[in-house]
Amino acid sequence: MEPAILIISTLDTKAAETFYLRDRIQALGGRALTMDLSMGEPTKEKADILPDRIAQAGGSAITSIRESRDRTLITRIMTQGAIKITGNLWNEGHLAGVVGLGGATLSMIATNIMRTLPFGVPKLMISSSAALPGLSTRYIGTGDIVLFHTVIELSGLSPHLRNVFNRAARTICAMSQEPSFSSQSAKEPGTRQIALSMFGPCDKCAHIIQESLTKKGFQVIGFHAAGICDRAMEEMIGQGFFDGVVDLAPAGVTEQVLGGMRAAGPGRMEAAGKMGIPQVIAPSGVNFMSPNRKNYKPDYSQRRKHDLDKDRTWLRLNTEELKQVAQVMAQKLNQSQGPVYFLIPTQGWSTADEPGSAAYDPAEDQIFTETLRKLCKPEITIQTVETYLNDAVFAQVVVETLTKAFT
What we know:
By secondary structure, this protein is an alpha/beta fold. Helices cover about 40% and strands about 15% of the residues. The strands form three sheets. Strands 7-6-8-9-13-14 form a six-stranded parallel β-sheet, sandwiched between helices. It has a five-stranded parallel β-sheet with strand order 2-1-3-4-5, with helices on both faces. A three-stranded antiparallel β-sheet has the order 10-12-11. The radius of gyration is 24 Å and the shape is elongated.
């Protein structure tokens, strides 16, 4: 079967709109499959993938879905069923891309489905709620999803809405023309692909590492460690995209432990260990947190701090918090099935605590190092480097360590 563009919609409210988009995709030379996530009474119009099939895949029956008053439950069942069907289509080579159309509820369901598909699968969400505060970030999450804000409601085939669908059809068709992308096709023959976590306060070090590794023949893919992209990095590591990791900025673990704004999820710093690939880790930003200002504790105003800009402030961790973060990191790293090297500079871990700054405190940082060394299994290498993290000397040690890990 020729790969098709899957259209996710609800025919009980948007049949005409769904079939118009389908026809436009087919007129442009694409093949389209419609998926109906309607949870109400049966409709006259029929999709290629019917609600009863989706409900069954989710472990229920469409009659139970229609009779239930528990909207949260039935939405979860239908979403899981759709995820299973969509995943099967992708695994069997029948999926060229996915497009959804709807308001807030369908946008949430459709993007939940899209985020289960690998990086590189074309994903387009046509949404009348894309600009609502807080929703766009929930829709996208860690997915490579394109949001198309319709501005107008998705109701009635007015000239304005036909124009929206015409542009959307061209967009998803063009996206689906790109050759299939996977963890294997992403790698150039004979090269190793390396994930690199990075962010502003360690950019100098990151760029030196990236340039040096590239010259050595590695492919280096950077991820901005602000809580979302480093979550995505973990997912892509688990999908087999990378042969090794330079985790220069793992502070998403700190933020997860202490409730900071850049929390990277409970699975942060675990995927590489499970995959058994080499990981070289540095502690950039680990000794700071960025709590939401409305959640400030009484002592926070007395902490040494670093203002990234007028909206973002980092607070230095106290000794107990340093121990706590080290304990969590040790627990994660002790599960690793591959080589682990934790390189710790002794003279500052980022521009936030560089030598001469108010937050510069190598003695306190040593508490983290000692706790980590005490709790990590012997197979894990913990090495101190007598320099500042953003110094070229430290970057070179990272490059040499990773290179040796592959020899």
